[in-house]
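User: Can you fold this complex?
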Amino acid sequence: MSNTEQTAHKVCWSCKGPVEASALFCETCNAIQAPGQLDHFTRFGLEHSFAVDVDAMEATYLKQQQKLHPDRFASRSGREQALSSQQAASLNEAFETLKNPVARAHYMLRLAGHEPEGGEGHTVNDPGLLMEAMEMREALDDADDKITIDAMIKDTRKQARACEKDLGAAFDSKSYDAAKKLATRLRYLMKMTEEARAKKSRLAAA
Amino acid sequence: MALLKIHEPGETPLPHEDERQIAVGIDLGTTNSVVAISNSEKPEVLRDKSGGNAIVPSVVYYGDDTPVVGEAARDQINTDASRVVSSVKRLMGRGLDDVKSVAGTLPYHVEVPEKSETENGEPMMVRLNVGNRVLTPVEVSADILRSLRTRAEESLDQPVEKAVITVPAYFDDGARTATKDAAKLAGIEVLRLVNEPTAAALAYGLDNGAEGLYAVYDLGGGTFDISLLKMQKGVFQVKATGGDAALGGDDFDHAIAEHLLAERKDGGATDDLDASDAKRLLKAARTVKESLTDQDSVEVTVPLNGKETKHSVTREQFDGMIAKLVARTTTITEQVLDDADVLPEDVKGVVLVGGSTRVPAVRKAVADLFEQEPLSDIDPDEVVALGAALQAEALTGGSDNLLLDVTPLSLGLETMGGIVEKVIDRNTPIPVAKAQEFTTYQDGQSAMMIHVVQGEREMVDQCRSLARFVLTGIPSMAAGAARIRVQFNVDADGLLTVSAREETTGTEQEVAVKPTYGINESDMATMLRDSMVHAREDMEMRVLTEARVDARRNILAVNAAMEADRALLSKEDEASINQAIANLETAMAGEDREAINDAAEALENASRPFAEARMDSRIRQALAGQNVDEVH
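Assistant: Here's the predicted assembly.
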């Protein structure tokens, strides 16, 4: 990475002086700046690694929202209000993406130039996984008491956790094809947990 | 030279004295409304001149003179019921299709529009026939807001033009827009629309310094909301929210009214009710409901069609009548807990909001569900307005607390086959900006219909239609080759703006749509003219204030820059900048907006050489120490 990128400057809209391209506020006049092309990890001061500490990230998120949220600019000029809304929206997007492991994996794949499976024109082509998902769904259809479903939820969550660990290793070794497959598997596991929970509450309501 | 005020980035400096206008919090409820003010984080409700009730019934009487709002309007139900409008909130932002389902339960005549849409594809708003007037729900709400504004001004003895207004968390985009329109008509600038449960949590949280996960169960006159909030270090984060925009205490009244009618029928009475009878019957029903809060049974006399009947209603009977309605609230609550992956025992406290939570059966259902006694040490009728007042103070005077809210309903677009493609999921934190790409499905297709919907269902006709517009000028291409990017923006008020753009060819076309179930711009202009002589002056005052805010910020910015880079400032430039600042300050003291803007521009011109010198210097610094051939 060249030095020019690290210290790239733009013109502050308020004092017309130089301001770092990635700065949230102008260091001279304190005016809020437009969100730049910061990637989500950089926004939280994190390395590009799949393993993230969601609690620590949330603390950073809240601290930044305290400064950027439109409520902090309600009596400021229209331009500052609009910029704060953009900043808060970018921050929300970054946090929502990184805190969800599937969204985080998809985001990292795209950053590396790989389109995740399951999107437009990217069908899932993993017979083993499709078979596994079908079996899980059938088991859920057959389950009709809370204990069985709770056991299923526990099992899928355990598998999901293991899958997240494998994903971390895949990203660390830049094995993007493996990461792609694991991300799809994680997506199925999360969906199954969700459906099992929904069925549980349907049973409870009935 | 003026002393510089240095602020931490992002910390709001207190606005200048003359611009720090007073801002109130308003709970615009289905049955009752309340206005409150907060000073130094101590909110209090504003009472009428005689220091009486804080509650203003959301009832308007349209007699021959100016509309009457509140208790006095409700008293007219007995004498001139056809000119009394109540529960209008249930119609806010509603179109023909919604009203068909509730019209029968409303105690006044609703004029149903012949078509469900205007020629522009905007949904037609319902109108009410009241006496000899035809009114929109927005105008009726504006009359209520105007009365609250007057109450605040009399109580505080100064003009009130800004407010935080609360809406049910579950209010959709149309109802939010309609509420903002009503405020505009009443001459109130809405600082923020805040969700009612969030406002209630704010009132509780600040009082108790609460940390952890809290549920707010809000059952008002016409709406039910349940929200789950996480409170930590002064941040109130809404985790999940749900509800029913047409379920509340009014439905309890209807249940009792039906019970009374059924008893009369058994006694041989044949009742053919007109709107006035219905209103009187509902008034009696409400009395029964309220009495059963403290008593086990109550006697009531129903005088209709010249036949007076006596009835006795026990609490047990009442509990039976409303059991299904209460069960609906607990089912929705369970769904919200599920959404957030939270168990009832994770919830540290349950806050009760809304007059209907006084009903013992409701309290018991909530206590049973969460396995704990709910909190209710703040009056459930006042808690929302108190929270709104706190937020109004935070927005005008600065605060250490922050509300982070979410979208209550998913937002999406119609795709092939009437299927909804979700763009923003429900419970996404706001503000949010999201884009999705679509493509054409026919060769040479030059236009595309963009249909924006709100709701959780898969099919378009089961969701609420918010807006439709056509993106034209798509260059001729093979099917599937065009790339149309549709951008959704939801602001901090929860209001949506949608724009669309074709991206492949570089020809950009952008259409911004603000879904409006409120009032269109030209109608709004007419109403403002008709109803408020001061509208124009208010508008000019607002623009002038904005010009002053901008100017003051400009001066602060230039001063900060001179302080930071004094070495780059020539004597001549400093002199001309200071002169320009002095001129601008003089202009700001006056009332002429143009003069302020001209002086601001002059300041910009005077400081340009200095700004350029600062940019040059920074670029030179950045390049120093690098080889020339590294620089591209």
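The domain at 3-99 of chain A is CATH 1.10.287.110 (Helix Hairpins). Chain A touches chain B through 52 residues (CB under 8 Å).
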